[in-house]
What we know:
It comes from Pelagicoccus mobilis. The chain has seven helices and no strands. It is an all-alpha fold. Among the domains are: 4-56, no CATH class; 84-120. The model has no long low-confidence stretch (mean pLDDT 85).
Amino acid sequence: MITDTQKQIAATKAKLEALEKKAAAEISKKLTNLHKTVGFASRAELIDALQSLEGPTRGRKPKAAAKRGRPAAKKRAKRTKITEELKAAVIEAVKAGKKGAAVAKEFGISIPSLQNIKKAAGLTKARGKK
């Protein structure tokens, strides 16, 4: 049993569908002649003109970080070459009682590199077994 309300809903849906088709046809017609409306001889000329507006990044997508408004990732610091002279200087600084982080910063090396130098020089204590 179909009620009057259901009939009205069906009729409204049919009207909506007809209006959507009409709107799609109008948009299609406008797009088909858009190049003439803005003064270009062909669609290809319009497309070329639009692509030239994109600038030097044409064809490339923005990086995800920049797209989300975040700054780009920092560049890595250049690695310090660990020479025998550097190792000797680091060992002297550690023996002088300086803290590990301060020594690493002073010589431009990472803390794990500092720990490796200390271990190779025998300046670390072995962990006790559990």
